[in-house]
Amino acid sequence: MNQIGKIPEKYRDRIIEVVGDDAGGYPTLVVVNAMHGNEVAGVRASRRAYISLAAIDGAFHGRVVFVLGNLRAFGVVKRYIDVDLNRIWDEASLQNAPRDREQESSEEAERRELLECLEWIEESAEGEMCVLDLHSTSSDSSPFGIAYPSARTARLMEALPLPFVVGLAGKVDGTLLHYCSEQKGYSSIIVEGGRHEAAETTERLISTIVLVASALGMISHETFPELPEHRKRLEKLSNGIPPRLEVIYRHAVEPSDEFKMAPGYLNFQSIAKGEVLARDGRGEIVSPTDGHIFLPLYQAQGSDGFFIVSPLSD
Ligand SMILES: [Zn+2]
């Protein structure tokens, strides 16, 4: 069961590849790509990771399903068509989904189809459901993860030698990550690999997939001897960024704001209270606090101007 040939016709465009089998209760890992249609590095990484993992064949313990998030936006290499697909998974948006398909936005159709696909995967899963949502960023960035920490996600977070940003609850509740973690109870994380078009972004995301598969017991050092190299590749990139950071501020943006980020900010760069971070139609936007800048908006589309994060002490 569960091999690519058994996939119903309607999911064949969305499911890129399937490797392994969860018979016997092994976990299912769903690797989600291109929730933002212009983030093609995840798709490239998934195709290459699939080839490496499929080569293990009989000794692979579990099932990895590689899926596309925003199919229509991916087709035209845009972040989204009508609205951000990764901001419409909150309860209110899901409840307000149009009943009539004619009334759906492009992303409401994507959400309905992706949801059906995830439910089909879950129904066919014999073991635990895990979701790895792969992204890339508009500007250069070292790789990092985002999670809602729980006993279930701890294993995935610890498997990756990357800084993790936590504390998004109440600030950005419309993400697929939030839905999968908090509503569905799947072990779920996001990993952002770096700048969209940079070759190393694909490499980092390949390592991410492999290390998560290892954390779930799907592969081992015996079946996949390259594991330590993948770990080393990510380990050397965290250059001084605290391992766990918490979101303490979000600057929301409307298209009418004419928001423009000040040039040159790098993800996780330190900032001081009062520093001018951006401008919009109303004037300068200054930082309300000390911290580190997170996800500064340097592309045309987006509803988050920037976030501010602060190291989390445990
Ligand atoms: Zn993204």
What report would you give on this structure?
The chain is an alpha/beta fold. The protein folds into two domains: 4-235, Aminopeptidase, CATH 3.40.630.10; 246-311, Beta Barrel (OB fold (Dihydrolipoamide Acetyltransferase, E2P)). It contains eight helices and 14 strands. It has helices at 41-54, 71-75, 91-95, 106-124, 151-159, 176-184, 199-215, 227-235; strands spanning 15-21, 28-33, 62-68, 129-137, 144-146, 164-166, 187-195, 244-252, 260-261, 270-271, 276-280, 283-286, 291-294, 304-311. The strands form two sheets. It has an eleven-stranded mixed β-sheet with strand order 1-3-2-4-7-5-6-8-14-13-10, sandwiched between helices. Strand 2, helix 1 and strand 3 (62-68) form a beta-alpha-beta unit. Helix 1 (41-54) packs across helix 7, helix 5 crosses helix 7 (199-215) and helix 7 crosses helix 8. It is globular, with a radius of gyration of 19 Å. The mean pLDDT is 93. The structure holds zinc ion. Zinc ion binds next to loops.
In short:
The protein is α/β, with parallel strands linked by helices and 314 residues long.
Count of individual beta strands: 14
Assess the beta-strand content as a share of residues.
15-25%
Strand order, biggest sheet?
A: 1-3-2-4-7-5-6-8-14-13-10
Rg over CA atoms, rounded to whole Å, is 19 Å
Which range best describes the helical content: under 10%, 10-25%, 25-40%, 40-55%, 55-70% or over 70%?
25-40%
- Molecular shape: globular
Q: List the bound ligands.
A: zinc ion
The largest β sheet comes out as: 11 strands, mixed
Order of helical and strand elements:
EEHEHHHEEHEHEHHEEEEEEE
